């Protein structure tokens, strides 16, 4: 949600943003801590007046990374294989009219795009077309379109089931529409759920958490403006509400993301900072029992900015926090109600007030460690300071080869390896190994589909893996 937009005049020439380390608390004029500026495109360079969502795609053939950036008038595609010199490949124009709301997700090498523009429906774009762009920037055309709905606020995809969940539409009271995208170029709607009203955003997984009653079920975690809903959507023709979660000082339940162990759900309420005057708040719920979820605690930032979209990678929570930019939060001790900020990159230096200027979204799932920040500032690419070219090596573990097809070998430099878990970028656990306590362990990954995965070692270290 973005209640107010401030349209900037198009710049005749854009400022030059070179790779700049975070030094003395800034990088090329942007406040920062622990994250360096790689590169940036302002909105005018992409022919737009406003920016919004973002996502990413890693080409399974060669590991090339692409940023997908939502704009008021379409979707931009950027090759970031050279993160210091990214290439703006071009734009897929909006299906109907411009809108400040656009959302993008990826499945099976295709982008799926919705917007609140009237009559927009679902655009489908074949991302493999980005491999051979002769004369960038190009104006692209959509490869498929589904028009069973018009406007929509958001789209979430469960890559493990091949279903897209379109939410905030002009159908089903704004509840999720269930779209089969297993053949990306022939999407079709199979059902919907309107039992809890309007859904603003959602995460959907094949459940692999601690509540054994729902193991293997497809579970929908929806942020529904004034509450969180948990719904069993395994049967698309007969979805079942499991439970709802309410909390104090509610203004607008906006978006949530699960921890990788599925014990906790981190939720942002978009308007509470403005309505109640406290600093940026993340509400943490204990969802280890899906039938009886409970409030765990509130985490408050040290600034007052409005929170928007947040995602979990291992023990780190990456939060797009509008005027506060990207905030990076350690959640390794979340069970004991402890979270602490460990870094940030602020794309809106003017202030950290509770408003809608600055960063709309952050995409932290690339294997390279590059992180996309999108919003009013256009496209910004950052990376953790002093992170090596290959972040599959850190102080304690290394992993090779990467990309990989058949096997990976993980080597510990300190403690023995006890467990290895592999997750999809949307948090679905696809492999769980309890291993002999050796310093080297080889894992067969031949059963994994092509794409990007997160490998968590000993419950405390997460590395990124590309499977060819």
Automatic annotation (TrEMBL):
TM region(s), chain numbering: none
Pfam families: Por_Secre_tail (PF18962)
Signal peptide residue numbers: 1-18
Keyword annotations of the record: Signal
Residues in Secretion system C-terminal sorting domain copies: 401-461
Any GO CC annotation of this UniProt entry: extracellular region
Protein name (Swiss-Prot/TrEMBL): Choice-of-anchor B family protein
